[in-house]
Structure formats: structure tokens, C-alpha cells
Design a protein that fits this description.
The chain is mostly beta strands. It contains one helix and twelve strands. Strands 7-6-9-10-12 form a five-stranded antiparallel β-sheet. Strands 4, 5, 8 and 11 form a four-stranded mixed β-sheet that branches. It has a three-stranded antiparallel β-sheet with strand order 1-2-3, with no helix packed on it.
């Protein structure tokens, strides 16, 4: 058992619990304005296989960024991931992200080219990918102009 006190009440907090061997974890959104006694049922950490394609073909020049929604960059033990910044894909356009925390929604971005002026971009809406233990996402790349029109 543990108790968190003196939390700021101007927003929700994400509480992450994990096992000593970091083989299991769980995250839960908590509202400090409400008396709340959550029970954390640890689950095996998840992994995500991201495939990046351009017009149906692998995009081996892509980089992938994965981030948990609503979570900053907490100090977590090695083996847990709430962020994976610009991981390189292999020749098949794939990258495997491990250590995802169950209970968190993850968004996935991809880009080809420099960060300040990419030639191709792609996005996968935030979803509870880590709850599945293993999930696969395919991102179809598009030009920046196509992305601007689609996400307007």
C-alpha cells in the first residue's frame, strides 16, 4: 500500500506501478480531487511492431516515434517505455518497440527526412496498444501537404 499526498488539483495524474523485475506494470489515470483507492493489477508489459509503408511498399528510410498520451517523461526503470524517440526501421520498414506500460494510450508517428522539414509523414491515433501484450500497427506515409489536408 502507498499513499500520494499534496498532489496538485489542477489536472489528472497518471500513476504507474511496476514489478521489481520490470516484467509487468500498469498505469491508471487518477483525479486528485476525488478520494480514490485504486488497486493495480499488474499485467505483462507490451510490445508494438510498427510497419511503415509508402504506397504499399516498405519505407526503410523512415524513423518512428512512440509516446504515451498524457504522460511526461517520468523516471522509470530500464525496460519500461513511455517514449521511444525516432527509432530507425529495418529494411522491411519495421521496428519493434518493447516495454510498453499497460493502461497507457500510445500514439505512433513516422517520418522520412529531417525533423524540421520531413518529406513524408505518417500517424496512428493514440490507442491502448500495450494492453494487448503484442500489437501491430501499419503506418501509410503521405506528403506533408496530404497530411495537412487530412488532419485539418
Amino acid at each position: 500500500r502507498f499513499e500520494l499526498t499534496r498532489l496538485a488539483t489542477n489536472g489528472d495524474h497518471v500513476v504507474i506501478a511496476w514489478s521489481a523485475d520490470v516484467g509487468s506494470a500498469f498505469a491508471q489515470l487518477c483525479d486528485p480531487r476525488i478520494a480514490f483507492e485504486p488497486v493495480f493489477a499488474l499485467m505483462p508489459v507490451g510490445e508494438l511492431l510498427v510497419t511503415v509503408v509508402d504506397e504499399g511498399e516498405p519505407a526503410p528510410d523512415a524513423r518512428v516515434n512512440v509516446s504515451a498520451q498524457g504522460v511526461g517523461r517520468p523516471a522509470l526503470p530500464e525496460g519500461l517505455a513511455v517514449w521511444a524517440e525516432w527509432a530507425e526501421v529495418d529494411e522491411n520498414g519495421q521496428v519493434r518497440i518493447t516495454g510498453l506500460v499497460p493502461g497507457l494510450a500510445y500514439a505512433v508517428w513516422a517520418m522520412v527526412g529531417p525533423e524540421d522539414n520531413p518529406t513524408l509523414v505518417g500517424f496512428h491515433e493514440p490507442s491502448m496498444l500495450a494492453d494487448q501484450r503484442h500489437a501491430e500497427v501499419t503506418i501509410e506515409m503521405m506528403t506533408r501537404q496530404e497530411a495537412a489536408a487530412q488532419f485539418r
